[in-house]
TrEMBL record:
Annotated TM spans: 16-40, 66-87, 107-128, 140-159, 203-223, 267-286
Domain CAAX prenyl protease 2/Lysostaphin resistance protein A-like: 142-241
Protein name as it appears in the record: CAAX prenyl protease 2/Lysostaphin resistance protein A-like domain-containing protein
Gene Ontology BP annotations: CAAX-box protein maturation
Pfam family, one: Rce1-like
Record keyword Transmembrane present: yes
Keyword check for Membrane: yes
Keywords annotated in UniProt: Membrane, Transmembrane, Transmembrane helix
Domain of life assignment: Bacteria
GO molecular function, one term: endopeptidase activity
Amino acid sequence: MFIEQGVKSENRFWKYIWGSVLLVLASLIGQMLFVAALFYETFTNGTSYPTNNEALMRFFEPNVTLFLILISFVFIMLGVVLVVRYLHNQTLLSVTTARSKVDWNRIFFSFSLWSAITIVSTLSFYFYEPNDFVINFKPIPFVILVIIGTLLIPVQTSSEEYIFRGYLMQGFANLSKNKWFPLLMTSLIFGGMHIFNPEVDKIGYIILVYYIGTGLFLGIITLMDEGLELALGFHAANNLVGALLVTSDWSAFQTHSIFKDVSDPSAGFDVILPVIIIYPILLFIFSKKYNWTNWKEKLTEKI
């Protein structure tokens, strides 16, 4: 079983604390390229150093900023591989799935399903409220965005899934010896990690319901399906297709997307719509396709 693969007597919880510190260090190393680019620009061209997050996100051309942000996740993913292998003496497969090999069909199905839903819902919003959007499409910057996004956004989303639904899920299982505590803790930490996103400033803390709910959804499909594959596909589709379709002045990613949302951000029903309606529908679809049973045991039982 997936979560049990990391539950070993030698996997003391302090190892996961130490491993998390190492992953933070890997992230900081990855961010050095962004910092170096900032210092180069300010010292060589005399540009004023950005004093807040909004100025930071607008300092470089959007594709350059996106690349500099995403490249740090290459170092994080490398950190995950090294921590799992050398600190915990596990294979990467053991924090990926309980199957004998990664099921790419599951990843592609989840990716395709959520991509289709995202595209249809975005176009529906555009045709229903056209005044909330402007066409932002510029062919050459968009092609560059597609290349950067296709290469690096899956690395970003995969590193997050390996950390939260893989590494930390198994880590908290070592601590609690049950399944509900890892599911709850990884969802809360995942949601809390988004508290510094610019959307929180614009919309308010209510949007954390969406982030925590998304973490809970990803944790549930991981436990029910005994692996990360569905979560990997969903998360990649969510970030990649979202970055290609819509940007706004207040979103975490400023991109050369097809549309730009110019509406005033507000906390409406759309914030909790995925959590209370769309995610349950997805759970139903996945459960029927992959014959999930024994929900209570898989989500709450002792290990």
